Amino acid sequence: MNAPEHTRTLFGTIFGGASSNEGMGLLNFSLDWQYIQSTYLSLPFKQQVNTWIAYVIWYPAMLGLYYSNAFNAKNFPFMSTSLFKSNGEPLSTASLLNNEGTIDDTKLAEVGLPSLTATTVWGYFTQNLAIGALITHVLIFFGKDMVLAWKQARSRTQPDPHYQGMLKYKEVPMWWYLVLFVLCFVAGIIVNAKGETTLPVWGYIVSLLLGGFIAPFSCILYGLYGSGVSTNQLSKMVGGALHPGRPLANLYFASWSHQVILLAVNLANWLKVGQYTKVPHRVMFATQIYATLLGAGLNYAVMTTIVTNQREILLNPEGNNVWSGSTIQSLNSQAITWALAKDIYGSKGPYLIVPLGIVIGLVLPVVHWGLIKIFPRFRDWPLNTAIITTYAGYTYYGNTSWVWSSIAVGIFSQFWLRRRLPRVYNKYNYLIGAALDGGAQIIIFILSFAVFGASGKEHAFPTWWGNPSGNPDHCL
After folding, report:
1. What average pLDDT does the structure give for the chain?
2. What is the mean pLDDT of residues 443-466?
3. Domains of the chain: which residue ranges?
């Protein structure tokens, strides 16, 4: 703690992770359940093994890129999703836009092309690797299963006992979904027309079609492994190609496209839960509509309040251990850079490797399949290149102190408890996970508004060794 600042910074980069964008959190254990969550009590062991393999790639890749000064990494923070000028100063997205929300070539010439941190470039690259691997992996390894599942669904001959048990309930008529689709589709057109999004109607339609194409692949992976692949990068790439110079249009294009995928996965997930718990189809449909409308209003109110009262720290490129705008900053950064795709990601751009990631990713499952053909015993290894590449760059920003805690929880639950005490596992594992999740969410809500200043006034906890006034890891 009394070492020179450069030494403490190095330690913070490697071991720090309690504060946003601080470091990689190597060997950093956290008891904060809002980050750990019950996910690792329920994800299948084969999925978690793939994520651990990914972490072995992630640690050296992040450090190697930064300390080798790849992409001029040392000019910028180690981790941040913001845009920067070439000299390392933060770059405001507004400094590149005109009043219509499009790129102003005059301002761009004055400010220069925006730059990204090396860790963000790695995160974007691995996302594209995962998208390519997702498509090829599903087609190679699960293509026949997809066709069979489609036929069984059409003929209602799926042998799953839970499915058969649900046949006694009235199914949701397809016209209910069609009416819902038409209402949402028209609402989307109105938003695009009245919201000054700069996204034309034809671009809106293309975004929905793109999401519809990717959704089945994401649903298959999620159904088998309990986790998906972030495909938002593909949406931004296509949006940038179709609407060059229009970051706002790109942002809306990606949002519409991603929502199709996200909602498809969530719908399939909760319909499956309803099937396991024998909730009638029509009751589940009505519940989802009600919950969506309730959640939309509640989330909007909470988000508006927090953004209004914590605007300054949310705009900070690094954030702190309580508030961070990293996710939204990432959306803005991607919208701007993909609107300038030709200059930034093109053949002469500094980040050409990012779009090439999709091509490389398409090949990875083919290599995996080839190794299985050469070494048949390789089939017994539960490898999934889409998941490995996803988690190899999944945490390129934000808090990282949960990584090792999640590994410990996964080993305890899915490896030890499930095998040694299956009765205890079946009776308590998911119940305790749900209870901890619910309790954590309630406490977060209370602390955010009563203590951390979400409502405008902050009430700081007393400082002591366990709650220092500075860096929570005692690194800086």
Report:
1. 90
2. 81
3. 5-450
